[in-house]
Design a protein that fits this description.
This protein is α/β, with parallel strands linked by helices. The chain has a single domain, classed as Alpha/Beta hydrolase fold, catalytic domain (Rossmann fold, 3-Layer(aba) Sandwich), CATH 3.40.50.1820. 31% of the residues lie in helices and 17% in strands. The protein is built from twelve helices and twelve strands. The strands form two sheets. It has a ten-stranded mixed beta sheet, with helices on both faces. Strands 10-12 form a two-stranded parallel sheet.
Length: 401
């Protein structure tokens, strides 16, 4: 086999047995068979009947576990389900081997069509943010609101810290990396991921770290792990180069649903400077910036992200009863809004240009705010990819971008 060929992946029905995926207290897992794919879905029973449905979509190398903390925060606001994309978490590879953005979006659409739960509050992180953007653009009838945490939308000037992830798309690089890192322990790998993923890896509790190591050990035993990572990274890079109606920024402009954008100032994978471009691209958007967060704000500061999501619902004036539908997505009136966060570690709150601002308390981070027209307040630092964390003292589970 040449260095440019991807390894053979046996059919899902002959894959080796590995340790079961962790299921948190109060969570449920189920497997959903659909044409060409089988998806594992994590859910948390809502506190009462009649809550609007929500669907969470993880990033590259992540899983539905990345949403456990936020789902728990929002169990009184939404009937939440988190999907393992094909080849990730506990979902086997897709039958056709399609790990493109379109392939992942197709999997989400098939699930929503089959479940009959749409329109949903669609929530995505990183790669899952790009997937969710495409879903919202091509199937507005399925999306009630859109929440994007550090969405992986095309950047011209990519951060140096994001280059290694992008290099996974280059033929042969994954093979070289696996040979180079074959002696690394699961603990070493997890520490590296957390250093990349979190604005402050110290948020992760010892129990959370242990869970992340167990999940890493489980994933490394899967024969398709690197294949799914490589092909998904390649799909993301390819999506960055698409033009015309399939370009992700063009599709962002087509999204009708009210949109909450969340960016971390210490994100090493998605540039913080992209926050303002995103706020301008999504026609009905509000922006939450967290200077101390990394790439996975929903795990680092789930209380703060949950508060901003609730504000999005309240701003919709009865949005939970919206029917969605093509051309009539229930919306936040007044276009782009800014969302401010109080209670930061250094007590600072910045604002720039937002027509309206809604206060959000909690989180343990200061935030700067702007609407689609202003300049983002400068923030620098180091940030993240996907792992599971919660508030101050987070529970981490291995992640992605």
């Amino acid at each position: 086999m040449s260095s440019t060929e991807l390894p053979f992946v046996p059919p899902a029905n002959v894959l080796p047995k590995v340790a079961p995926v962790r299921v948190g207290e109060g969570e449920r897992l189920r497997s959903v068979g659909l044409p060409g794919i089988t998806l594992t879905v994590r859910s948390r029973p809502p506190v009462r009947e009649g809550l609007p449905p929500a669907l969470y979509v993880h990033g590259l190398g992540g899983s539905s576990q990345n949403w456990s903390a936020l789902m728990e925060q929002l169990e009184g606001d939404a009937d939440g389900e988190a999907v393992d994309l094909p080849g990730f978490g506990d979902s086997p590879p897709p039958d056709d081997g399609d790990y493109s953005i379109t392939g992942h979006a197709r999997a989400v659409i098939r699930f929503l069509d089959a479940s009959g739960r749409g329109p949903v509050h669609l929530i995505g992180n990183s790669l899952g943010g790009a997937v969710s953007t495409r879903v919202a653009a091509v199937r507005p009838d399925l999306v009630r609101t859109l929440t994007l945490v550090s969405p992986a939308l095309p950047e011209i000037r990519v951060q140096r810290t994001a280059v290694p992830t992008g290099l996974l798309a280059v033929p042969g690089v994954a093979g070289l990396f696996t040979r180079f890192s074959r002696d690394w322990t699961a603990e070493q790998r997890v520490r590296g991921v957390m250093a990349l993923c979190y604005g402050d890896p110290g948020l992760v509790t010892p129990e959370g770290f242990r869970h992340a190591v167990e999940e890493m050990e489980r994933r490394l035993r899967l024969p398709y792990f690197w294949d799914a990572m490589t092909r998904s990274a390649r799909g993301l890079v390819n999506a960055y180069t698409l033009g015309g109606q399939h370009a992700l920024w063009r599709q962002a402009e087509r999204v009708l649903a009210p949109t909450l954008l969340v960016y971390g100032g210490r994100d090493q994978l998605v540039g913080f400077r992209m926050a303002q471009k995103a706020a301008r691209a999504f026609r009905d958007s509000r922006l939450l910036t967290l200077p101390e967060a990394g790439h996975v704000a929903m795990m680092e500061y789930p209380e703060t992200v949950a508060g901003a999501f609730r504000d999005l619902l309240r701003a919709g004036d009865g949005l939970t009863g919206a029917s969605g539908g093509r051309g009539e997505a229930a919306g936040v009136s007044g276009g782009r809004e800014a969302v401010g966060v109080s209670g930061g570690r250094d007590g600072s709150v910045g604002a720039s240009g937002g027509r309206e601002s809604a206060g959000v308390s909690g989180g343990g981070t200061a935030s700067s705010v702007s609407d689609g027209g202003g300049d983002a307040a400068a923030a620098s630092g180091s940030g993240g990819d996907d792992a599971t964390a919660s508030g101050s003292g987070a529970d981490a589970t291995t992640v992605g971008s």
